[in-house]
Write a structure and sequence with these properties.
By secondary structure, the protein is of the alpha/beta class. It is 35% helix and 25% strand. Strands 3-2-1-4-5-7-6 form a seven-stranded mixed sheet, sandwiched between helices. The longest helix has 15 residues.
Amino acid sequence: MTSIKKATQIAHLLVSQVLQPGDLAVDATAGNGMDSVFLAGQVGPKGQVYTFDIQEEALTLTASKLKEHNMGQQVTLIRDGHEKLSDYINEPVTAFMYNLGYLPGGGSRITTRLDTTLRSIQQALVLLKMGGIITVIMYPGHREGKVEKDGLLPVFNSLPTTQFVALHYNYLNKSNDPPELVVVQKVSSE
């Protein structure tokens, strides 16, 4: 069995169980591009990935990573906030990936915020197709990350059990507020 040490690895493992070639996926927070590369590989050349970020630097990093892996034709890079998903997408989505916080190596001045993340997730829940999955990695080790976690968990806890399964993964033996992962799967369209 492969050793899983990071929340991102768990998120990729779970998404890989659902996302198929030809599907539609969303990387709601481009960051350094790793989730976009993963999603593009999963959906293949006949699929589609929409990647959002407000920072040009993040989109440039993502474009470079996609080129390095000979991918990109199936990825649309969007310089806009993830709270505007519905402005760009109006069809069912199989997988949404959120890796909240700030751009790795880019400093913590620009970070995701609870208000925009909540609006984005509310839209994702509507756009999510039956059996589809949303992964959200939260970073409570910085101030805004803790605000996001504290604001998002009650939303996930209140999802109707007739429509969604929500799981919360967190490290039990790590200190200093390690990342936490929430996974939501749509099980009914009631």
